[in-house]
Design goal:
The complex is a heterotrimer of chains A (321), B (307) and C (388). Chain A is mainly α and 321 residues long. Chain A has twelve helices and two strands, in the order αααααβααααβααα. Chain A has a domain of 224 residues. Chain A starts with 5 loop residues before the first helix and ends in a 16-residue tail after the last helix. In chain B, 75% of the residues lie in helices and 3% in strands. Chain B contains ten helices and two strands. Chain B has a two-stranded antiparallel sheet with strand order 1-2. In chain B, a hairpin with a 2-residue loop joins strand 1 and strand 2. Chain C has 388 residues and is α/β, with parallel strands linked by helices. The longest helix of chain C has 20 residues. Classes of the chains: A mainly alpha (321), B mainly alpha (307), C alpha/beta (388). Chains A and B meet through helix 5, helix 10 and helix 12 of A and helix 4, helix 8 and helix 10 of B.
Chain lengths: 321, 307, 388
């Protein structure tokens, strides 16, 4: 993957991760000092999408599985929490296992079918399942259909409504992001992760030594789906609202853009990508109504001149020398 | 569900299929020959429609508008190719996705800045604005029939070009193995430019044809782009024949599904449940079709690349 | 997208009288859909609102007024983030606008949780009119079902026996059909639900032609409506089967449909030709300012600005929120639609008309009232509203 030695790359990523997470951890204190409460809310959104982007990066960057239906898990996770809440079930001890189980099951079934294909065919078949989930959500009249469903509160933890406090919720989301990031790192570094990356480079070689990558890919796909489902559950809590728009193909496309923008094959890149995408959108749209006239060419320039995404533009971050 | 109703719906499905084919043909060629994912193909369709509206304002005739729009679409397409796309051919698919996504954002917004957000319209040519009565009380517009005929003509022309000419042979060879064609001394750059320009014009042509019956608005190409991808994936990337058949299948399935899904659901469910489930299924139908096709044939109906 | 518009008049005033700079100012967050195909609806509503601000000399209720216009991009969760920004970072005094119900539902909770007064310019979803109503929410538009109910009553009164109804397959579409059926007692031959954003209606039109109903009713907002109207005319049905609609034939779509829509009917609480002084002034000023004919969205936006203006004057500024809310509830302004009072759920009680598309002498396509269907219409959800 890289001409740099493994320890060098690891330490660079380690330093980067330390900086990023230290920034996230210190932000509420800073915001409090400046009296800016909005930035905390906005950063919650960034971290939620960062979780989704990390999960996509895991399969996309390391397994070459370009899922164009990843937003479906975001939506599924959000709907699980909101629908349970609509029926009076608020506690995390029920909603979290249900969310993970539903998303895992959906990933298992659709992944088992999708992984029979490769490349663009995989992109399109995951889009197909994403669209099926989307249209199913829009037809749920009992849960607001296209208008979406308001959650009149947040998930409870063993009866406690502590998540209603923004700072507490912030650190819970940060904890989830850190957990997902570390988990993804462990997966990538494990034997399992090496098989996954090996399958990306040469499937034939793996088969020659008696490993069928299909099962490895499927497991990675299910893990990524569950992670994105967690992000969805957090998104529902952050917005206190769910809507089929969470699973539209536009959203799936944005997730891919976040990962590629940040830098393929880097989990930290996914976090950086999600943050820059959302911050740029927010800042540019403050600046002008026609902010897409700036954002569009920016993406083109990143591709043309920033091989390896934004993460490679950071000091000492350029890959392959 | 009378026979006439079914026949008319079939005609409608054909017409949607033809429109999809015009967009998908360029997409599948560019993808197949150049291994280049061009998400901006949808906005080229949109540009065709907008340029036609602008051309109509200048010339006052449909045919003049068409001429201006075709030339304009070609110029914009070649400009994009020279400025951006040319540098992406040897890059990763995802880099291409990101860059062409940027182009979509830019052009959708630019169109809004230039022509405004309100939907626009292109009047039909007088010659084709009549209708014929194909069943009691239902007139079928001549223009729609003309659209089907024009699409079939383009398909036939493409077939001849691809299968009978030297350029077509190179295109076919390129779709199967591009590096080999290049190694044989063919100027692959020129071939690429030719294919790209042709694909752009086809998308623009589809936009022009669609403008009088569909609405001209910013972002009009986004959903059709997705449908066009569905078509080329079902057909097998790089295959014109596959794209043609898949476009007709998608057009027919979508139209007939919308026409009859709720009725079929009513046979099985209560009317109110059927009204919930029927339209949802109708919307999903082409995606179910695509997933089904890919499950049994992971590289589409007419795979081009060996191995 | 966000633009800060402080009318030039205000700047001049501040320049001339230095003391005015210290005077109380008013900051309004205005949320509208301004990108994607439905951008034109948000544009009408925003332009109407800004015209109202401009006509008050840039000072609603005598306060220097800053309107922060934000594009919700029709993404509910994105809209929510932007509204949080307006409430917490920009610290707006009031919120206004919102075109679509799904966006409204997404931003509703943070707005009322923060006890910010909201004056809506279009979306009126049933939960907000009913069980989830709030004293902080006012709207100068309508409850979503209103125009559909009007068309249902009109169809019933016109003696239509067999009808086909058609709407996009999403919540507002289903609500519209339910609203239509509330007053129409004849037979619904067929209910057609189309895909949201559908471009081609040949399939549905074929069914309509085959079934030959007495009339059809449809709700097809934005570009979908343009397509449907054009294709309906091209299929030769426009003169044959009466076309009743809501949010389909109006000044946002007429520039694209033009002659194809002539004579088609719609339900609305307002039309440019409504005969009252406030309306005449509004339509003339709007067309002079922006060069296009206003639709209901523009009229509602304009009324929202004028309602805020009048209520601020009555309450003597923005300082006492309870007094301001009480003043808003009295609706102390001349609406461009004539009679206007607020019901207990802060939704309007107003007259509803059947309008039809016509070509005006100056070549512009507009709607024109045909007859009044409801006098002082009350929405169907007000009894569920328990406001304390």
């Amino acid at each position: 993957m890289s001409t740099q030695s493994a320890p060098a790359r690891l330490s660079r990523e380690l330093i980067g991760a330390l900086i990023v997470f230290a920034l996230f951890a210190g932000l509420p204190i800073l915001a409090d000092a400046m009296g800016d409460t909005f930035v905390v809310f906005f950063t919650i959104r960034i971290m939620v999408f960062a979780i989704a982007a990390v999960s996509l990066s895991l399969i996309l960057g390391y397994g070459a599985m370009v899922s164009f239906g990843h937003a479906a898990y975001l939506g599924l996770g959000a709907y699980c929490v909101a629908i349970l809440a609509e029926h009076g079930i608020w506690d995390v001890t029920v909603s979290l296992p249900v969310t993970l189980a539903v998303c895992g099951l959906f990933a298992l079934v659709t992944g088992a079918i999708s992984l029979k294909t490769r490349g663009v065919y995989f992109i399109m078949i995951t889009l197909a399942f994403g669209q099926m989930a989307y249209y199913t959500a829009t037809s749920l009249s009992a849960y607001g259909g296209d208008d979406g469903l308001t959650m009149w509160g947040r998930t409870e933890i063993l009866g406690s409504t502590a998540l209603g406090d923004r700072t507490v919720f912030y650190y819970v989301v940060l904890g989830c992001l850190l957990t997902c990031y570390l988990l993804a790192r462990m997966i990538v570094a494990s034997r399992f992760g090496r098989v996954l990356q090996g399958a990306k480079q040469s499937e034939m070689r793996l088969r020659a030594i008696g490993i069928d990558p299909y099962a490895y890919r499927l497991i990675a796909y299910v893990i990524a789906g569950m992670m994105a489902g967690l992000a969805g559950a957090l998104l529902a809590n952050a917005a206190e609202f769910v809507s089929p728009a969470y699973m539209s193909w536009h959203r799936s496309g944005e997730l891919i853009v976040m990962v590629v923008l940040g830098g393929l094959g880097s989990l930290l890149g996914a976090i950086v990508g999600a943050a820059s995408f959302l911050v740029l959108e927010e800042v540019l749209s403050h600046f002008t109504e026609h902010w897409r006239l700036i954002f569009g060419p920016f993406l083109v320039l990143v591709v043309l001149f920033g091989r390896g995404g934004l993460i490679s533009l950071l000091p000492g971050g350029r890959k392959n020398g | 569900m009378s026979a006439t109703l079914f026949a008319v719906q079939t005609l409608n499905g054909l017409q949607l299929g033809i429109l999809l084919f015009l967009i998908a043909a360029g997409l599948t060629l560019v993808f197949g020959v150049m291994d280049f994912i061009n998400l901006a193909h949808g906005v080229q369709y949109m540009l065709g429609a907008y340029l036609a509206v602008a051309g109509y304002a200048i010339t006052g005739t449909f045919w003049g508008a068409m001429l201006i729009a075709l030339v304009g679409a070609l110029v914009v397409g070649l400009l994009l190719e020279a400025l951006i796309f040319r540098h992406l051919y040897d890059r990763d698919h995802l880099d291409q996705v990101l860059a062409t996504f940027g182009v979509i954002l830019f052009l959708n917004e630019a169109v809004k800045v230039i022509w405004g957000a309100a939907p626009l319209t292109l009047p039909m040519p007088d010659l084709l604005s009549g209708s014929i009565e194909i069943m009691d009380g239902l007139l079928y517009p001549v223009y729609r029939i003309a659209l089907i005929v024009a699409g079939l003509a383009v398909a036939a022309l493409l077939y001849v070009l691809v299968s009978k000419t030297r350029a077509g042979m190179l295109v076919r060879a390129g779709a199967t193995n591009a590096p080999m064609v290049s190694a044989l001394g063919v100027d692959i750059r020129r071939l690429f430019m030719l294919v790209f320009g042709f694909g752009t014009m086809l998308a623009g042509f589809a936009g022009i044809l669609a403008a009088p019956i569909l609405v001209v608005e910013p972002g009009m190409g986004d959903n059709l782009l997705i449908l066009a991808f569905v078509v080329i994936v079902i057909g097998g990337i790089g295959s014109i024949r596959g794209a043609f058949l898949a476009a007709l299948i998608v057009g027919l399935v979508d139209t007939l599904g919308r026409g009859f899904a709720t009725d079929i659901a009513k046979l099985l469910l209560s009317p109110s449940a059927a009204n919930d489930v029927g339209p949802a299924i109708a919307s999903m139908l082409i995606y179910i079709l695509m997933a089904g096709v890919l499950f049994f044939r992971p590289t589409g109906l007419f795979p081009v690349r060996g191995g | 997208m966000k633009r800060i518009i402080t009318a030039a008049v205000t700047a001049a005033a501040v320049g001339l009288y230095g003391a005015a700079a210290q005077a109380e100012s008013l900051k309004i967050g205005f949320l509208a859909t301004l990108s994607g195909p439905p951008a034109v609806l948000g544009q009408h509503m925003r332009d109407g609102f800004l015209l109202g601000v401009k006509q008050a000399g840039g000072k609603l209720g005598g306060l220097d007024t800053e309107v922060i216009v934000v594009d919700d991009e029709l993404k509910p969760d994105g809209a929510l983030t932007k509204v949080r920004g307006l409430l917490e970072r920009d610290q707006v005094d009031m919120m206004a606008g919102v075109v679509f119900s799904n966006v409204m539902m997404a931003v509703y909770k943070p707005i009322i949780d923060s006890e910010t007064i909201f004056v809506g310019g279009n979306a009126g979803p049933s939960p907000i009119a009913g069980r989830a109503c709030s004293p902080y929410f006012f709207t100068t538009s309508y409850q979503n079902d209103q125009n559909h109910e009007a068309m249902g009553k009109y169809a019933e009164d016109a003696g239509y026996k067999r009808m086909i109804v058609m709407a996009p397959n999403y919540q507002a579409g289903k609500d519209s059909i339910a609203g239509f059926k509330r007053h129409f007692k004849g037979e619904i031959v067929d209910e057609l639900y189309t895909k949201l954003g559908q471009l081609d209606f040949s399939s549905e039109i074929t069914r309509i032609a085959a079934a030959k109903p007495d009339a059809i009713f449809t709700f097809m907002p934005g570009g979908m409506g343009v397509n449907l109207v054009k294709q309906y005319a091209q299929a030769g049905l426009a003169g044959e089967i009466p076309f009743l609609s809501a949010f389909t034939v109006d000044e946002t779509t007429l520039p694209a449909t033009q002659d194809a829509a002539l004579g088609l009917q719609a339900g609305a609480q307002w039309a440019p030709n409504l005969d009252n002084a406030a309306n005449k002034e509004f339509v003339a000023a709007f067309e002079a300012e922006y060069g296009y004919a206003p639709a209901t969205y523009a009229a509602q936006g304009y009324d929202a600005a004028r309602l805020i203006d009048a209520a601020l004057k009555k309450a003597g500024g923005k300082g006492d929120k309870q007094a301001l809310m009480a003043a808003l509830k009295e609706a102390p302004f001349e609406s461009v639609r004539g009679d206007f009072t607020f019901n207990t759920n802060n939704f309007p009680i107003q007259d509803v008309y059947v309008v039809k598309a016509v070509k005006r002498d100056d070549g512009k396509y507009v709607t024109e009232t045909v007859e009044k269907v409801f006098d002082d219409k009350v929405d169907a959800y007000v009894d569920e509203c328990r406001m304390n």
